[in-house]
Amino acid sequence: MNMRTAPEGNELQLLREAAQNDVRGMRKRLNVLDKDAIGVILTEARSHYAWTDQPVSDEQIHRIYDMVKMGSTSMNCCPARFVFVRSKEGKERLSKALKPANIAKMIGAPVTAIIAYDVEFWRELPRLFPHEDRRGHFSDKPVHAEETAFRNSTLQGGYFMTAARAIGLDVGAMSGFSNEIVDQEFFAGTTLKSNFLCNIGYADETALFQRLPRFDFDDVCSFA
Questions:
Q1: Total number of domains in the chain
Q2: Which residues contact 135 (CB under 8 A, 6 or more apart)?
Q3: Reduced to 3 states, what is the DSSP secondary structure of residue 57?
Q4: How large is the average pLDDT for residues 172-179?
Q5: Of the candidates 82, 85, 45, 86, the residue with the CA atom closest to the CA atom of residue 65
Q6: Is residue 194 part of a domain?
Q7: Which residue, 55, 57, 87, 145, has most beta carbons within 10 Å?
Q8: Global pTM?
Q9: Rounded to whole angstroms, what are the CA distances from 116 to 20, 81, 90, 152, 200?
Q10: pLDDT of 3 strictly over 80
Q11: Is residue 220 included in any domain, yes or no?
């Protein structure tokens, strides 16, 4: 664990002013995404189940993570951990955990990301949240720590899917698998636990079916 000293005084003030100016500058450059950009990451994007053999590069995987790591988490706790499964051996190990209907989807994808979380993420808080020691909020509260890790790693998984789409890849998240088997295969003897899986690559669109219905605003939304 890398310890960091929180800035104080004039240094802190300068850093805050720089951060505020960065946001103002960004909003001047681009205040809102256009319809097509929103379509790529959300409104026209689809979950995919079949894949071409076009590979996903190390550079693309690094680009995705460099975006994901900037997404907000509570107390900047960043509990998500990622395993990118693409070797034949790795796919065989992961196959043990999948329901039969999902095996072909995973095998056919260039990369399957295991989005996991560290239940002892709080040990890194002095590095990630240096201005106040918050380890005591979690160190003797394992249920609270796991709930926090699960919630925020799920959030980071959403960032992951959006980031992959943003750089031109397709995604297909999966939950039809045994978390217990994944944890035995990939995280035995660690403090990591699996959350969900996500295939990434270049989709074979011929496997798509029609888009399924969604709720309207008034069906599920209200004001208080």
A1: 2
A2: 122, 123, 125, 126
A3: coil
A4: 96
A5: 82
A6: yes
A7: 145
A8: 0.93
A9: 32, 5, 16, 10, 16
A10: no
A11: no
